[in-house]
Amino acid sequence: MGVIVVGSVALDSVRTPFGEVTEALGGSATFFSVAASYFTDVAVVAVVGDDFPDEHVELLRGMGIDTSGLYTEAGKTFRWAGTYGFDLNDRDTVSTELNVFEKFRPRIPENLARVEYVFLANIDPELQRLVLDQMKSPALTACDTMNFWIERKREELLRTLSKVDVMVLNDAECRELAGEPNLIKASRRVLRMGPSTVIVKKGEHGALMFKGDSLFSAPAFPCESVYDPTGAGDAFAGGFMGHLAKTGDTTEVNIRRAIIYGTVMASFCVEQFSVSGMASLTGDDIETRFRQLKEVSHFET
Amino acid sequence: MGVIVVGSVALDSVRTPFGEVTEALGGSATFFSVAASYFTDVAVVAVVGDDFPDEHVELLRGMGIDTSGLYTEAGKTFRWAGTYGFDLNDRDTVSTELNVFEKFRPRIPENLARVEYVFLANIDPELQRLVLDQMKSPALTACDTMNFWIERKREELLRTLSKVDVMVLNDAECRELAGEPNLIKASRRVLRMGPSTVIVKKGEHGALMFKGDSLFSAPAFPCESVYDPTGAGDAFAGGFMGHLAKTGDTTEVNIRRAIIYGTVMASFCVEQFSVSGMASLTGDDIETRFRQLKEVSHFET
Does the reported pTM lie above 0.80? Predict the structure, then answer.
């Protein structure tokens, strides 16, 4: 079992109306792996520069995350800077410095090539396929993407989509990828592009899951204290894949549960900057929110 | 039992990317009463001009709606014209002609003053209170509002809010009324303004209900064919109040059910122009969608 994630490990500088951090631990693979580490063994494949602080690697290792695929290259670590407005829904990217990430060609270490649950975070769809080609016995593969790839590498993205089991994307990306404003129609159209499951993340509005003719609408966790939405989508994916890998059960019933676990991890993520909100949870913290989501969405027939 | 609604009966001219209608039957009280008529006795209190087509009155009466409080005044009926863009989320009001509605002072006919379930659709909060003062034995009162009243008649609106049991409003209105971008915090703040229950309508993202410390997150019905969102909020309120009046049960368990019935009625409303999508339903149509919403939101612990 276990899960492997390929994506970015970055230094994020984020400003929100509630505070700011400078060069904090960030990146899609980071948020994913910290969230997933509460459920199963996690291995991260990414690249950092020789300026990457040891303490960040130690934090990941301290959470039991396998960093044998975290390569250090000469040069600077990927840096991202962004600001969020008062309602936290729109973010402005202030700067993106790819640095060593620009030439990232993911190599899966031999000992990780048989990990069965594979998450391709938001990277170039060509690289996502390069990763898939190296995996020896995937039980379930999932990928994320972003508007940049939808617009600039559509054909490559469609090829990746035809090879993964689960597509995870946000509502704007789903509408854009499908060229369809109705989200239900758009999601079903993405389903026809290859994946057997499509998960649409809607931030404060929860998530939708499409699988065959079935549809699941998951509530968001009612967070009153949202400090920084950065990484929420990756934390969601981490909880989702982590639960699937832990249970080894990819039936729809369990996929629905996994989406709730993803929702729980995203809710912890947004309550603090960087990975702080997810760094020291107990299993009880997670189960409590899982049960709260059941209460929040329950009605009697 | 039974429900009474006070609001507008209007002639709507609506253009969406999927078609258009001119001077079709519209208005908050219309959408509400047609939706509610599937559940219980409904009486509508509103004003129309002497140009109001008989066929519209006949449609309402044909659905069993009591129109003894539908007054006809010399002059023209309230007219609203609007257009929706491709994603149907933003609407532009092209024109609003209040006409006879401008001097509307709602009078509750004697025989309707003892109706127990009272819905104050989106009208001047002063008039909403004028209605409340005329009701003899309300079991449950609910009101809607809009940005116009929040901005121009805030004090009056707060006075109305302190006198109703249920506040129904959309997410943007909730944030504006509370002066708080976090929707959970904003809703709890509205709860402290007086009503024991606050319902936040989020369109394609469903609805939230706050009551005491409890929170209910209702999914939207997954509509693939949305032709015209006009009236969806009032249809939602109609299904909600209709179910409560039918059952005479205002416990939280039943309020949650009522929200699902509201969601079902809104889903039928948006599938056609005017009230056409709600004009000829069967009880089975409604129950089928209720059950589908149960399936859509279900997950196992």
Answer: yes
